[in-house]
TrEMBL record:
Name of the protein in question: GNAT family N-acetyltransferase
UniProt cross-references to SUPFAM superfamilies, sorted A to Z: Acyl-CoA N-acyltransferases (Nat)
InterPro entries (alphabetical): Acyl_CoA_acyltransferase, GNAT_dom, Ribosomal_N-acetyltransferase
Domain N-acetyltransferase residue range list: 17-174
Species classification: Bacteria, Bacillati, Actinomycetota, Actinomycetes, Kitasatosporales
Regions annotated as coiled coil: none
Length: 192
């Protein structure tokens, strides 16, 4: 199994952060992580409502193992000092069309440390350079300021708003669509 270091700097208090595949055999750890952050994670995304027991956890992870095998999605966990604290993913990935939709979540203890930004950079680098993805999208509830801040830090452009397009917990949410194109991503990475 591989682990990609996300940095041991002051941004995460000297802690060791890693990005690793999140796989079905880790269903118990994944469920425990969701339980720790259920309310925080569930503010804007349905993952917290979906992962309610060990079977649901295993099923969710298995669905992403199938997506990885079919090259239609990816799921990675973020570990901080050996503890699963969040994740990043390509919810969808269409290599033929050159598009992918990235997403993320964190439990409260990991928020504000730059972990998602660093982890998504790794995913986008891989998608653009290894898989030939041309457009990476980031769909986010208009009220989710931390996630919008990640899109900005990644150099994404706000393409528009899908007004009241997402029904979640009985309320309609506006969804902002952000994206970055491969040439923009490469130019920004070279400039850094």
């Amino acid at each position: 199994m591989y682990a990609i270091p996300l940095g041991d700097d002051g941004a995460n208090g000297g802690s060791r952060a890693e990005l690793r595949p999140l796989e079905p055999w880790q269903a118990e750890e994944f469920l425990a992580h969701i339980d720790r952050g259920r309310e925080f994670i569930g503010q804007y995304i349905g993952l917290a409502d979906l992962i309610v027991d060990l079977d649901a956890s295993r099923s969710y992870l298995h669905s992403y193992a199938e997506k990885a095998a079919a090259d239609t999605g990816r799921l990675c966990g973020i570990w901080l000092d050996g503890r699963l604290v969040g994740g990043v993913l390509f919810r969808t990935m269409d290599v033929e069309q050159g598009t992918a939709e990235a997403g993320c979540w964190l439990e409260p203890s990991a928020a504000g440390k730059g972990l998602v930004t660093r982890a998504v950079r790794v995913l986008i680098d891989w998608a653009v350079e290894e898989r030939g993805i041309h457009r990476v999208e980031w769909l986010v509830s208009a009220g989710n300021e931390p996630s919008i801040a990640v899109a900005r830090r990644l150099g994404m452009t706000r393409d528009g708003v899908l007004r009241e397009s997402y029904l979640y917990r009985g309320r309609r949410h506006d969804i902002e669509v952000w994206s970055v194109l491969a040439p923009e991503w490469r130019a920004a990475r070279q400039g850094a």
